[in-house]
Records
---
Amino acid sequence: MEDFGYLRDGDVYLDSACQSLRPQPVIDALNRYYTEHNSCGERVKYAWGRKTDELVEETRAAILKYLKLKNKDYSVSFTLNTTYGINLLLQQFKDGIFKKVMTSDIEHNSPFLATMTFAKRQSIPREVMVRERDGSINIDNYDFSKALVVVNAASNIDGRKLLNIKDIIKKVHKQGGVIIIDAAQALAHSSDILEKTEADAICSSAHKMYGPSLGVMIVRRDLFNKIETSFIGGGMVDDVEKESYQLSAESPNHAYTKFESGLQAWGEIVAFGEAIKWLEKRSKADKQNLEACTQRLFDFLKSQPKVHLINEEPNPTMSFYVEGLDSHMLGAALSNEGIMARTGYFCVHYYLDHIMHYPPLIRFSFGYHIRPSDIDKTIKILERILG
């Protein structure tokens, strides 16, 4: 694809689950910020600042539109990454609201560890739910009464989705609980399962959906009354006296400032808006190419007797190990051929190591930059290595 023209022939990038490659329009948008209107948002009145403010607000609106959510119900704030967003919420919930905290066994360390520390600090029990092989949770097995639930919408192991996400949200709310969704692996290629959800918060990362390094939080406005703001600084207040201050977030139009302390990454926010536009413009041919490349590599891995594929169905994210071959050594061998892939446990140590007892894995994950020639090369090299 021409938007990834900087990708050299022979370089095969298979680590999009960590961070996707950035298409040229996103890179151009970031460069325009630095060369045409480099300025502090929400602080200045000169023309450059007004331009930055305009584009930042467009990005907030674009995110809600992308997920088919309404501004009257949700506010969009920017952070460092998904991990930061989840912790920013969990560290600021008022005491005594929840009777327990719940997560699932296939979670990234971001929510898995954050729920551990939350349970200890709040002196409440923590429950780890079992995810089915298709990614769903059997909600009949769990009581969500006044629980804080933090789960992913899609796994970074094999892309399995939380297929019954809306049923879970409905039951959590019916039983007086709150649910936070880790959408880091879902927003780029599986955003449909999050459209019109009523989750209390959705945390994600722009750098996993073709944008710059940036985090985003989409938070229900009625969740704010459960938050006691303690992570605070510049950009969050309208007035300050010697022993008191007035939060800007008290105004509905500035609710997002509740989670935006200090100077924000204005250029990255602007470029993220461009990434969303770019994603929405993906053609049927682009999607078919991604699906075809996914299917072809899945079929190859599935056909190899020594390959133990974690995936049960094709997904742009797929993990496996090779019997009798160290995955880190395999990753190094692939790297020597220009193929870039992740090895290890992908920050899902509990499930992969202690539940499934897998050896370290290798993960292939790709996006719209993928070329049929990349799959050709990967299969050719693997055939040679696997013998």
---
Amino acid sequence: MSGRSAAFPHPLYHKYVLQPYYRDAKIYYFAPMMAANRAHVVMLCRCGIITRENAAALLMALDQVDLLGVAELTLPSAAEDLFFAIEAKLIEFAGVAYGGNLQLARSRNDLGYALTRMALRPLLLAAAADLICLRESLLAFAREHLETLMPGYTHTQPAQPTTMAHYIAGVLAGLGRDMTRLRAAYATNNQSPLGAAALTGTAFPIDRQLCADLLGFDSVLLSTYDSVAASDNLTDVGAVVTSLGVNLSRFSKDMLFWATRESGAIRIDDSFVQISSIMPQKRNPVVLEHLRARISRMLAQAAGIALQCHNIPFGDTQDIEDEIFPLLFGSLETAQEILQLYAAVIDTLEVQVAHLRERAGAGFTTVTELADTLVRECRLSFRQAHSLVSAFVSAAAEGGLSPEQLTVAELQALAAEQLGITLDLPPEHFQRALDPAAFVHSRSLSGGAAPAATAAVLEAQAEQIAADRSWLQGRRQALAAADDALLAAARDLTG
């Protein structure tokens, strides 16, 4: 047939598959591959599979590749990927007799999975650090607003008075669980597949645990089949990013409403506001709009991870590796951008405290407490109290009365008319039941809106944030210790 080419690769395959993958591999795989190569050489030598001289030659050749630098590693026309490009350089520097032994007891399958896991680690830890920083910013913000009254909403309508701190504590709770998910994803990811080779392992007497230790993995994936077939370390990243995106997206929706003139709850800092090209009065909260859009991008990337993984056989998944790179690594990079931007917004946010206090009781948001008061003090059933207060509010709304204009005498008259009872409710108890501040302070149960109760929640969240910081430091120290151990092992062989 015309157009048939006998030589690999076809120009279009090279352009659309090999070259893009090679560019991504140079960004994400080069450092992990060099570390994995050194660990493999050390292991082969310690297990007696290659000589010390062979190991030293390979390690010194790897040093030469490092000195050459990833930017100088071009994709040879006959090579498929970064692995073969590096192997070609090793053979060039060490000779085929020594350089050709690097792939003993190893396949691109187990190597590729190890590199993906290693490349994910710094991105997962960076996202964890940014998530911790955002939570710290929200925690400090909430502590400033323990007494800041505001309306809480259900079904997009003013429901009951609460505080800004109580709202933010709820947001922090979700982000805390996202951190737990991220830590679990890191644990799932940080397991070594090395030693599985193509699928079944190898007949060479290798030490899988040694490679895992030198590369900072927490454990070895026991099944060699699972080692090259597992994709849950990838989909776990997508799950974390999805949950984080949904939580932040809902927060963004509220923030955008609060920033409207109709709400007037917050003022976005001028450094995040753009003007209109035609309307002089506009203060467009563009940072929230871009955050909303960027969250959508992150959610799309996360969904793409699952879609890439779901229809491949349970075996070698290398065929999706180059396709999933922009989604997998990109989702975590997008998450970092979002988290950093959000923290900066919170750190500079101004709350319109007096306006929110005024709005907290508007729309009869306190009358749940009035119904509860009737149950406690007048011995009505809750359904009787609910019906009476509902009629009371309807009559007030029809008469154009605000909550401040209501009187206990009007409520008593309505109770006599509708229920045929006499309400013995002191005026001061009636007024307290309609007071937004009293409403909030009465919610003193664990986790409630009362400032003291919310402060206790924030203290528990602060302790969890501190524990997460300790975990992050521990993970980074473990990786650094493995790097040091690998360097020392390599130096021992090269002198």
---
Amino acid sequence: MEMSFREKSAWACLVTTGVVFIPYFTFIAQLASRGELIRRGY
């Protein structure tokens, strides 16, 4: 079954979003687990 251009674009967007945000949230979770994450209220 052939995927349409829109479906391919949606998959590319999902993969790109995962590639960017999974390492970011992993890093933030590691900082939080070590107690190094500082929240500042502005």
